[in-house]
Amino acid sequence: MTESTRTSKHALFADYAWLPDGWRRNVLLEWDADGTLTHVTPDASARMAGVPRAAGPVLPGMPNLHSHAFQRAMAGLTEYRANATDNFWSWRDLMYRFAAKITPQGLAAVAQWLYIEMLKAGYTSVCEFHYVHHMPDGNRYANAAELAGQVVEAARTSGIGMTMLPVLYQYSGFGARAPNADQRRFINTPESLLDLLGKLRDAYPESAARRYGVAPHSLRAVSETSLRSLLDGLDQDLPGAPVHIHIAEQTAEVDACLEIEGARPVQWLLDRFAVDSRWCLVHATHVDAQETRDLAKSGAVAGLCLTTEANLGDGIFPAHTYLDEQGRFGVGSDSHIGVDWRAELRLLEYGQRLVRRQRNVLASAEAPFVADRLFGAALDGGAHATGRAVGALRAGQRADWLVLDAEHASIAEHAPDAWLSGVVFCEHGETPIRDVYTGGVKVVDNRRHRDEERAYAQYRVALAELLR
Ligand code: NGQ
Ligand code: ZN
Questions:
Q1: Whole-prediction pTM value?
Q2: I want to staple 332 with a disulfide (CB 3.0 to 4.6 A). Which of 65, 130, 262, 429 is the partner?
Q3: Do residues 439 and 208 make contact, with C-beta atoms less than 8 angstroms apart?
């Protein structure tokens, strides 16, 4: 059947769309009632009668591979010098104090508003690295998955696709050090965490919009034994499900790992576990040359959260070498001091420019436009990290995309090969992202989400309570 004889209830015509081989003209997008793309047809003959037309060029939606939703509510509140050596660890103390105050209703409101902000920014999927599990005194809620459930529900009502990764947090440091009092809301054993995950799956089964995995918090927070039993248990229920871990964000944890475990974190993990494309190593910031090569070879995704890593003073990931080795990466908004994949990609390139004193460092001979190369790579790596069929306009993938505003100053009058450069590297006030679709549903229409007023009002109430 050709596109002109097919009749499709779910269809959109785009003058331009970014397909796996780049910008293509006259693209007909068709999807089914479940929100899965069924046909993507470039060079479609004249516009079909009755098929709506996108208001501008169409891009695949970007996956956000790392989020701690509750931290959105403390963004902008730790930008003062609390002591002479303010650093990651003193920020973490403030963050723990904030985490101690989270309630189920508060988390629901914060996550709901955050996910709406993500959608408006063009993130159509999120991987939630969720670790606040228990009541403030460390006891379980009647429903052990109470807080995780609020986050999954927020994703459902906002329309963002979700990979929920309940976090295993067991220890306070290398060598299985007992957890601290301010970590008590986070603590589980592999068994209790898998039990929590089971409850969550009963209440919210997997679907085209939702997937589960696990997140051992960091090598500081699990042991080799507990990590192994977590993965064994996971593979009985959900074989091949995504596994995310914070790996090497701070030099202090690299030093402690070397001292106590005898290897740097990335090397330690690669040597002991079958790390492959189901893995996402978040903040693989501190890697030596060998680790950079081995990580690239493993097929795992480096989870880069550039704005958070800059905010927390982490360091700079050797992106140039890693991309040269064909390493996979995606981006995440993590602590949510910004919620904008364009800013993440820009900072990824700018870090390299500042270090190397050159321009367009992350471009390559095959991909001379740095924005296009980074956008394509972050779609691919981000999609792997979600474990869902997302990240490309191709039959079989989720019908997730963004419609750019064709009249916006970042792209107007520019040739198509400069559009992504304009979108990523220029700011002209309001976002160039006009409409956003997830699962074939337009959830953002002319920069507005259907629920944004209500969600913002509830966010304000929750925030007032948290800051009281
Ligand atoms: C987190 N955040 O779990 O929220 C961490 C800080 C830690 C970032 N690493 C806590 N950005 O690593 O112990
Ligand atoms: Zn994190």
A1: 0.98
A2: 65
A3: yes
